[in-house]
Amino acid sequence: MFGLAVASAEELTQAQLARYRAIYCGICRGMREEGSSLCRLGLSYDMAFLALLLNSLYEPEESSGHNACLPHPVRQRDWVDTPYVRYAAQMNIALAYYNAMDDWQDDHKLSARLQAKLFGHTYPAIREKYPRQCAAIEACIQQLGELERQACPNPDIPANCFGQLMGELLVFQEDLWAPALRQMGHALGRFIYLADAAVDYRRDRRRKKYNPFLAMGMPEDFQRWEQYLVLSMAACTDCYERLPLVQDKSLLDNILYSGVWINYRNRQRKSQEEQQNG
After folding, report:
1. 115 near 100, Cβ under 8 Å?
2. CB 186 within 8 Å of CB 238
3. Mean pLDDT across the stretch 24-30?
4. In whole angstroms, what is the distance from residue 88 CA to residue 31 CA?
5. Is the dihedral of CA 6, 44, 4, 253 positive or negative?
6. CA within 20 to 30 Å of 176's CA: 66, 107, 117, 128, which one?
7. What is the structure's pLDDT at 32?
8. Residue 1 pLDDT > 60, yes or no?
9. Residue (of 51, 53, 50) closest to 85 by Cα position
10. pLDDT per position as a tens digit, 199-249
11. Which pTM was predicted?
12. What dihedral angle (degrees, nearest 10) is formed by the CA atoms of 44, 115, 119, 152?
């Protein structure tokens, strides 16, 4: 359910792109240090959005450097580290663990089982440090599984479930900004879930898998689905614009006002091409 909250690289300046990649490399580095080098297999660019958002809101001191690594052994890469970059790395591991567990239970993929074991070694320590966030992940995965088994015909119910998960992830601590972050995350989670349902409609129909739009008997209607997405993203950006963000605001704007839509339409186009190619 991820891969949408990503910047549109073509619209970034060289400085913005370098900053974005440094945050991403910082998360990758954090995943290695929190778990192991193999934990980086679950790395997601979506977590760079989380780190950028919290860095911009709280403006912590940053450490930085550049070095080669296993994925890039020749050319050194710049990285940035803050408590919120580390938090994004830990949430990435937690999400990757439950995503692998979900894939294993649904499809019994050996690769998913191996990944679950890999991330499972690190997850207990993360859960002890962030019980609220991890409890939200666990509850969401369990509820989504139950809704799938029931073939829930109301897209709002699973979308709200995933929204609650995202709301808790965006809230690093219960403070003045927690309500706005929670509301923002809830709307972003709804957007991500409904966008996935729209993009996966044809594939789920072909594979006879659960999809809320299929379950409600709705024919394919990307124009109508995009209206749902516009409403969710409008709610997300309304909360976003109420936050006192300065640092990396242009990067965050790129992700929310451009990147999510470009990535959604790219996935939509790819889904249509797969259907045409059979």
Report:
1. yes
2. no
3. 91
4. 9
5. negative
6. 128
7. 82
8. no
9. 51
10. 999 999 999 999 999 999 999 998 999 999 999 999 999 999 999 999 999
11. 0.92
12. 70
Helix (H) or strand (E) holding 5: none
Query: Quick check: helix, strand or coil at residue 95?
Result: helix
Angstrom distance (rounded) from CA 249 to CA 237: 12
Place of tokens 């830990």: 90
In sequence order, the 6+-apart residues with CB closer than 8 A to the CB of 29 are 69, 79, 81, 89
CB atoms within 10 A of CB 56: 18
Report the distance separating Cα 66 and Cα 79, nearest Å: 6
CA-nearest of 59, 8, 51, 7 to 26 is 51
Length of the chain in residues, anyone?
278
Find the DSSP H helices in 200-242. 201-207, 212-215, 222-240
The secondary structure of 247-269 as a DSSP string is TTHHHHHHIIIIIHHHHHHHHHH
Residue 92: C-alpha distances to residues 34, 102, 129, 149, 278 (Å):
11, 15, 14, 26, 34
Nearest-5° Cα angle at 261, 210 to 226: 55
Amino acid (1-letter code) at residue 58: Y
Give the model confidence (pLDDT) of 75-106 as tens digits. 778 999 999 999 999 999 888 887 777 665 66
Instruction: State the residue for tokens 């709610």.
Output: 235
- Residue of 55, 54, 27, 23 lying closest to 39 (CA atoms): 27
Nearest to 57 by CA among 240, 275, 271, 258: 240
232 in Cβ contact with 190 (< 8 Å): yes
How high is the pLDDT of residue 269? Answer: 85
- Distance CA(103)–CA(121), nearest Å, equals 18
Tokens of 19: 């900053």
Question: What letter does residue 244 receive in the DSSP assignment?
Answer: -
Alpha helix (H) ranges present in the chain? 14-34, 46-58, 83-107, 110-120, 123-129, 131-149, 156-170, 178-199, 201-207, 212-215, 222-240, 249-254, 260-276
